[in-house]
Write a structure and sequence with these properties.
This protein has about 375 residues and is of the alpha+beta class. Helices cover about 20% and strands about 40% of the residues. The chain contains six helices and eleven strands. Helix 4 runs antiparallel to helix 5.
């Protein structure tokens, strides 16, 4: 009997010992800490980052240049043109602004995963969903943009042919030389030829005559009043080209150049609901950096929808230092839907509806909770 009692008590002690929780077993096999401070990356660790949304803007502007012709002051008098370019001008216009979102690594949200044993983590599933990002340099491989906008459409002189047959004329004058003959001096005349440059009005008159002759000749060809008929349209094309060149001597020339710009803008939560200057633009100077006083601001307005606030009912956000101290939570970021409006004054240039990560919540998931298979 005594031996049976001893055996029973021994069995109860063993069962009670097995029910006591082990201190080693309660310790997490995975440690996840924000990178920085005294936290260091050890061998066998995994480093990941939370995504950051950057707005990439493609801006197209047009630059119009006007150059007056050398004979602009004689345009109405000689060829009947009243509305011509009288001064050298430059105008800029904003043609379009388009945007797209680019996900980058948030430099303030790096995390280290350290495992003591065989790890089973949700990192792969979160990465496929875009909620966390790998440290991958290929993400920035396509962000190189050339700022070489090309040269002007016109290279060299704008008015190579001023329309005159000759730009100098020969002027004959009578000069005298004094010769001593016996006891008297006599004056002997002789002719002197000098080159004289044409005045601007004379050059304009020559160009006007040639222009009117070209127009008359084209009219005769097209109406059949001449005995010479071109075999193809090359003659008419050349007459039209000369007509444009000679007309530009009086009316002036203008051309338009298209300029492309690309800028990157990182939204901040503090910008929500307010207008922030994206860049400045003026009709005389084009696009300039934000902060230039001589140009009109082009502003961006960010209005979050607040859809990620309902996550408080499902996953508790990390809001306290006590929760941050828990080392077995996998941190990830859920984006929020944001309405974006780009405007210049009262004119809306571009609108979009995008997901922006930094406007959402940073939440924590238990590291041993597996998403899917």
């Amino acid at each position: 009997m005594k031996e049976r009692l001893i055996a029973f008590l021994y069995s109860v002690i063993i069962l009670m010992t097995g029910c006591i929780p082990s201190k080693t077993a309660s310790k997490s096999d995975m440690v996840i800490l924000p990178l920085g401070g005294e936290v260091k990356v050890t061998d066998g660790s995994i480093v990941y980052a939370l995504p950051l949304t950057v707005l990439e803007f493609d801006i197209v502007a047009e630059r119009t240049i006007e150059i007056p012709g050398p004979y602009s002051e004689f345009a109405e008098e000689m060829i009947g043109l009243a509305d011509v370019i009288a001064d050298e001008n430059e105008y800029w216009s904003l043609r379009s602004v388009t945007l797209r979102t680019v996900e980058e690594l948030d430099p303030s949200q790096y995390y280290v995963i350290e495992g003591t044993t065989l790890m089973q983590t949700n990192l792969l599933a979160l990465r496929k969903s875009g909620l966390v990002l790998d440290i991958n340099p290929e993400r920035y491989a396509s962000s190189v943009v050339s700022h070489n906008q090309g040269e002007s459409d016109f290279q060299g002189p704008l008015f190579p042919d001023l329309g005159a047959q000759e730009y100098t004329s020969m002027k004959t004058d009578t000069a005298y030389k004094v010769v001593k003959a016996d006891t008297a001096f006599i004056r002997i005349p002789y002719l002197v030829q000098k080159k004289k440059s044409l005045t601007l009005e004379e050059e304009a008159g020559e160009a006007a005559r040639r222009l009117l002759e070209l127009r008359e000749g084209k009219h005769m060809i097209l109406t059949g009043e001449t005995n010479i008929f071109p075999q193809d349209g090359s003659a008419i094309d050349e007459i039209n080209r000369l007509d444009r060149e000679y007309s530009a001597l009086f009316a002036g020339k203008s051309w338009t150049e298209t300029k492309h710009y690309r800028i990157w803008f990182t939204p901040q939560l503090s910008m929500a609901g307010d207008k922030t200057t994206l860049f400045t633009f003026s009709e005389t100077g084009g696009l300039t950096d934000a902060g230039t006083n001589s140009s009109d601001p082009v502003s961006i307005e960010l209005i979050p929808s607040g859809k990620t606030r309902d996550l408080n009912l499902i996953v508790r956000p990390v809001v306290s230092e006590k929760e941050i101290a828990v080392a077995d939570k996998l941190f990830y970021r859920v984006p929020d839907v944001v309405d974006i409006r780009v405007s210049a004054g009262n004119k809306t240039i571009c609108t979009a509806r995008k997901l922006i990560y930094q406007f959402g919540n940073t939440v924590a998931l238990p590291s041993n909770f597996v998403i899917g298979k």
